[in-house]
Amino acid sequence: MSNPHQNAVAQLTQVAKLLRLNYQDRGKEFDRVIKKLTKPDRVFTTELKVIMDDGSTKQFKAFRSQHNNARGPYKGGIRYHQDVSEAEVKALSTWMTWKCAVTGLPYGGAKGGIIVNPRELSPTELERLSRAYSRWLVDKIGVWVDVPAPDVNTTGQIMAWMVDEYQQALSEQGLIQENPLGTFTGKPIELGGSQGREEATGLGGVFVLEKLVKALNLIPKTTTIAVQGFGNVGYWFARHAQDRGYKVIAISDSKGGTFAPEGLDIAKALAHKQDKGSITGFAKPITNEELLELEVDILVPAALENAIHKDNAAKIQAKAIIEMGNGPVTPEADPILAKNKVLIVPDVLANSGGVTVSYFEWVQNLQGYYWTHQEVISKLQPLMEKAFDEMWAAREEHQVDGRMATYLTAVGRVVDAMLLRGGEKVLK
């Protein structure tokens, strides 16, 4: 299995070669900045001890990676998954730094996770685990330090438990923090959450889809889409795409996929998944591997990392890939796809709608003033469209692929912030 952090560093190293031409007068400082960006500022690990329902105690390994805060507080989700690793959270925190810079958010990147299959825990065990993780983070996070959010297998309810535990711990330690609710985003509306947060990542991706389809001179009603991954992100992407007249012909989850060349009814597919526990059996069966290789206009990998790699990249028949999952295409696959003229809109741009609305939530918490759903969406759309336009312009100017074009903008903004800050790590 490809190491995700090595992938993230490989991408950074590649873009640094292009970007260095812009910093010839500060070459040595630029090189030091890039070297610093190849690893997180801090990585925390621990073993969380949780009392299970039967009275026994079980340990769960947990992580928090804080990559870079030159542009603002660390920001990034928390995932619960049996395959969480230190390399993964380091990679995801790196990608979060670029993701925040892409849309101009005043954040740096972070990511956290616990090695656990949450489906094996009862609701009370899940709450104890979440509270234990939050309490461990108390001295590592804060509204101006590090702002966690939901990610794979974490929810608004889990954020509610975490922010409650965080506030309790602050109180017990005699610490006073202004607007402590702002330390976590992705919270329920009743606890300071933002309208539009649940759909934000998928909807942001559809704003990108609209721009891409126009740039490629495609017609929405005849544009075919396959979505690998039918969790929160994949569902909302598929639903909003269908609502805008696109033809979603295949979707899949971890158990398999379903395919209908005339187009799927996404609302009915969701109802089927909620009833049966999977979307398999909804229409014609298809494997995840077969879905990736379908002859479609737009392929949307919206699951976990490394879905498209050197062994299957040559089989991809889509005109373009919109990366709605994190790191779904490995660096080894990129040149193969480029050779076959498959255009990529990278994850740090395509799925940045989620962190953008998390930023809106944070702003609302700091203000104590909350926006309507329409206000949130009206603020999200222009940011996503501007980020796409900047990527497209850089792609044409530098004759590079979509990933490198996006990274040129994002990494450049982080480098500029670090050079402006100066300090021993940069200047000496």
Could you explain the architecture of this structure?
The chain has 428 residues and is of the alpha/beta class. Helices cover 46% and strands 17% of the residues. Strand 6, helix 7 and strand 7 form a beta-alpha-beta unit. It is globular, with a radius of gyration of 21 Å. The two termini are 38 Å apart.
What does the secondary structure layout of this molecule look like, with pairings?
Layout: H1 4-19, H2 27-37, E1 42-51, E2 57-68, E3 74-81, H3 86-102, E4 108-115, H4 123-137, E5 146-150, H5 156-172, H6 200-215, E6 224-228, H7 232-243, E7 247-253, E8 256-259, H8 266-276, E9 284-286, H9 288-292, E10 298-301, E11 320-322, H10 333-339, E12 343-345, H11 347-350, H12 353-367, H13 373-398, H14 402-421, H15 424-427
Parallel strand pairs: 3-4, 3-5, 6-7, 6-10, 10-11, 11-12
Antiparallel strand pairs: 1-2, 2-4, 7-8, 8-9
Helix pairs in contact: 1-3, 1-14, 3-14, 4-5, 6-7, 6-12, 6-13, 12-13, 13-14
